[in-house]
Amino acid sequence: MKALIVILLLSVSxxxxxxxxxxxxxxxxxxxxxxxxxxxLPGARDAALGGAVAALTHDVTSVFVNPGGLAFxxxxxxxxxxxxxxxxxxxxAAVVATPVGGFVLALSAVRFGIxxxxxxxVRQPLGTGRMVSAGDVLVGVAAxxxxxxxxxxxxxFKYVRESLDNDAVxxxxxxxxxxxxxxxxxxxxxxxxxxxxxxxxxxxxxFRSPLLFRVGAGEDIAIGEDHxxxxxxxxxxxxxxxxxxNFGLEYDMLNLVSLRAxxxxxxxxxxxxxxxxxxxxxxxxxxxxxxxxxxHFDETMEPIQQFSLMISF
Length: 313
Fold this sequence. Notes:
- With 313 residues, the chain is mostly beta strands.
- The protein has helices at residues 2-19, 44-48, and strands spanning 77-84, 90-100, 103-113, 117-118, 131-132, 134-146, 151-164, 167-181, 188-196, 200-202, 205-207, 212-224, 227-238, 244-253, 257-265, 272-278, 287-295, 304-312.
């Protein structure tokens, strides 16, 4: 109970701190950065928890939120994910990680794409018959390490390419993250800096990278011998939009089935999410897990559904 109070106080203090910045006028930074597909969380568990996973991530999918979580991977893991995103777009991701010496190394690939559409011009507003494609591709290399029984640190370098028809822009970005166990119950704190890199230029227009700062806290509570509740909260500060707060709860039963829920504050759409995961016992040293997430966007858009498959061996 004390740990939950600490998490609540942290989230409230962060929310209060954000509310102190009142410039006396409305100003939105939306649309001032490119590569917006990087903000999509491919992992179904991460999405079901509302993105409140900076301090909760502990497997191969850590590369998508906080590379510091990679350090908890104790055997080779691989994961594939599919996200049915808005307006028929989609994100597919694959990542593999393995311990090497005192480090955990990971290689990831993510592709965001949309259906081809017909080109239109002023003179041919109904279409020219020529099809246009667009999408993003990311390849990342990451490493995580335990520096003590309480502290982990991870680093990731990413090559990103965004294309629209015959025009394209590419960039090199990096992430850094850490998770620290406080020694108070199971409370841990986390910090992650994502998508840091130089500005990009498309034709004659410059864009910033979609830099994100995450500060999170997480706590595990044993309800019984085979029942556990995990709570998490993240304060997220993007450089191209307003700050928001993520909350997530995960109930694990018999180390077999997990039920999840998430909620985000200070966002207009995609406020709440639900999900579940099934993780049967290992067979011949191989563990298989399946996760699903459902995110309600709004009444005018279809819900977002995500699936992830993970194998450890």
